[in-house]
Amino acid sequence: MKKLLAVITVIVLLGIIAVPYINGLIMEKTLKDFFAEANSLSSQTGSNYTLEILNYHRSIFSSDIDWRLDLSSLKNVYGIDEIIFSDHARHGYTGVVSTTRLDKNPWFTSFIEEKLGGENPFNIQTAYSFFGDITSRVDMAAFTTMAEQQEISVGEGQFIIETDDHLQDFSASASWLGLDAGEQASVADVSMETEMSQVSSFLWDGSIAFSVGTLRAAPPQGQLVVNNGRLTYSLETDMADDLADTEAAFSVDSIVSAGKTIDGARGALAVHNMSASGYENLLRSYTRMTAEIVDNIQTLEDPSADAGTVLQEKMGELTFQLIAALEKLLRKDLEIHLSDILVRTEEGDISGDIRLHLLKDMTLMQFAPIVGQPALALDIFSLESSARLPEVLVDDPSLLLTPLHPGMKTGLFISENGSLTHSAETREKELYLNGHQVELGAGTR
User: Fold this and answer.
1) Which parts of 65-130 fold into alpha helices (H)?
2) How far apart are CA 186 and CA 215, in angstroms?
3) Comparing C-alpha atoms, which of 360, 378, 357, 361 is closest to residue 369?
4) Cα 428–433–435 angle (5° rounding)?
5) Among 253, 420, 419, residue whose Cα is nearest residue 342
6) Which phi and psi (to 5°) does residue 64 adopt?
7) Phi/psi class of residue 400: alpha, beta or left (left: φ > 0; alpha: ψ in -120 to 50)?
């Protein structure tokens, strides 16, 4: 019996020691796998950052890690070469929790001492699960600081990010009470939610939602106030059929600017039936262009360099690459839909809806003949559009009411009960504007 108790005691003691130790091993592997994936993604996308472990000391019940984020050319934007993180991780029985400090960064310690009186409002913790999931949480306490002789009160906030060691799935949420800079500006009740899944280095399926309760600013034109603004974005891809759909939408309860009030506005822009590979190539070209510009910021700021010439040459080269990437999206069934447009003004509502559908594969050069022969557009596009706005909002309504082409029987708009209205559609390769067929061949040679 005593031997059995001794064996059980040894097993329990080994378990007490072994489980935290094993969790420490799992955490080390998870972290190193994550760094490898993040660096690979940065290299593939040209994101100009690298992660590096500087020191890793693991014991039975805890680990201490120093690692850094090298900002590379991004230092030209942020003015910081690197960020050093110091983690103290506690190995538990269900996982590992680490606390992160930033006090090995002189720029951070100077900010805390000089701007916040030595009180650090940031608390960073990361949890590593047995299955390789990583959850980081940043909590920020409220604080007050000075900037350009203006006191700024910053509210509390939190940021939570969850992912796995291979960066396949990613979610994040943030909430922030905002800041108050007196008469200059204020922001209140900011939040963000996102759920994304990696499709490729540049494509992430999922959605992002951003909202702000109140935004107030004092630009030269007068006070600007925005209430309950919301912006959403989503992307859905089907790589097997090389298809991608994306949509961005916004809404706001009210806008007050220069003494005028908008009692609500909303709208959405969707692009359907894109080539997923073409969209990926466009994002790749845009990212490359952005990285090139960032790389040249230092050159542009050099007074001895011809900044205008450098920027002009670089932008010309990069714009050509971006146009070439954009052209790959011009394939049959591509559709652009501007929908649910509504702006409520004191004079009345402004509304609209536009749908443009590409009927065949195109190149940019193939659009050129439309200038001289507008009827060719009916072989390229199908169109549905409608709009309405109060006539009093237009200084000279005749510009919208006068036909712009010999084949038009009306202007782009017609006057109707104090409103300017518009409707257009294509049917059987013919264009109809405000109920009348448009003879696009009229007056052409």
Assistant:
1) 75-78, 106-115
2) 6
3) 378
4) 85
5) 253
6) -125, 125
7) alpha
Instruction: Identify the residue whose tokens are 């994002």.
Output: 283
How far is it, in rounded angstroms, from Cα 118 to Cα 276?
50
More confident residue, 426 or 307: 426
Task: Write down the pTM of the prediction.
Answer: 0.85
If one counts every other C-beta atom within 10 angstroms of the C-beta of residue 189, the result is: 15
| Closest to 63 in 3D by CA, of 16, 19, 23 | 23
Question: Of 75-79, 124-128, 346-350, which gets the smallest average pLDDT?
Answer: 75-79
- C-alpha pair distances (Å), 80 with each of 5, 84, 290, 302, 320: 60, 11, 18, 18, 32
- What contacts 345, CB < 8 A, 6 or more positions away? 260, 261, 262, 263, 390, 393
Q: What are the b/e assignments for 289-310, b being 16+ CB within 10 Å?
A: bebbbbbbeeeeeeeeeeeeee
Q: Which residue has the tokens 């994101």?
A: 47
* C-alpha span between 333 and 281 (Å, rounded): 19
How many Å apart are CA 90 and CA 94, to the nearest integer?
A: 11
Strand blocks (E) in 370-413 = 381-390
Dihedral sign for Cα atoms in the order 355, 361, 365, 370: negative
* Residue-wise DSSP of 241-310: TTEEEEEEEEEEEEEEETTEEEEEEEEEEEEEEE-HHHHHHHHHHHHHHHHHHHHTHHHHH-TTS-HHHH
3-class secondary-structure state, position 162: strand
Q: How far apart are CA 19 and CA 277, in angstroms?
A: 46
pLDDT tens digits for range 193-214: 999 999 998 899 999 999 999 9
